Amino acid sequence: MKVLVADDEQLIREVIREYCTNEGYEVDEAENGSAAIDLVQKNDYDVIILDIMMPVLDGFSACKEIKKIKNIPIIMLSARGEEFDKLMGFELGIDDYQTKPFSPKELLARIKAVTKRYNKETDIFTYNDLKVDFIAHTVSINNKEVNLTPKEFDLLKYFIQNEGVAISREILLNKIWGYDFFGDDRTIDTHVKMLRNNLGKYRDLIITVRGIGYKFVSKK
Length: 220
What we know:
The chain is of the alpha/beta class. Helices cover 44% and strands 22% of the residues. It folds into two domains: 2-119, Response regulator (Rossmann fold), CATH 3.40.50.2300; 124-216, Arc Repressor Mutant, subunit A (Orthogonal Bundle). The strands form three sheets. It has a five-stranded parallel beta sheet with strand order 2-1-3-4-5, sandwiched between helices. Strands 6-7-8-9 form a four-stranded antiparallel beta sheet, covered by helices on one side. A three-stranded antiparallel beta sheet has the order 10-12-11. α2 (33-42) runs parallel beside α3, α6 (150-161) packs across α7 and α7 (169-177) crosses α8.
């Protein structure tokens, strides 16, 4: 897998490079948005780690131009956690958002999650006798179908596709309900509660991450 890291902080680039290299990934670096666009025009990448605040050309502008060139998954980095930045990023087509300071291991989990979604490695998720068919939109436990609402299924699918990643309620609202939905955290919590109840003995696969949101973990 080939990764492009665009950040004006050399230390950040070096840390990400070290962890990605240890995973066997090939890494290119750019110190601003303009340099990132040049590299995208010349090379193929599986994922781009893109900082927002960069000289010459900021991350938002670079993201907009990159999406015109190639459909590459983008994870946006920011030292700021303002809702505006996140919403702006998702509206431009980013796939995930990571606030600095961050855990390199968590960033790696996010890289694996977004590339897995793009690669569409499997249309069916199985864990013991739990089976989730993403194409047929069905869930079964021990060959017995589990009746989920469309939103519950979308939540479960998003959790599975981002396994191991702590997902905020805000991101879940944006990804599952959309940007124009005027709900709050209680909407997510209510649906997660119903989803857990429907999953029965597999309810504990959805873990509550205090102060953030939820995480799906089947590989223990």
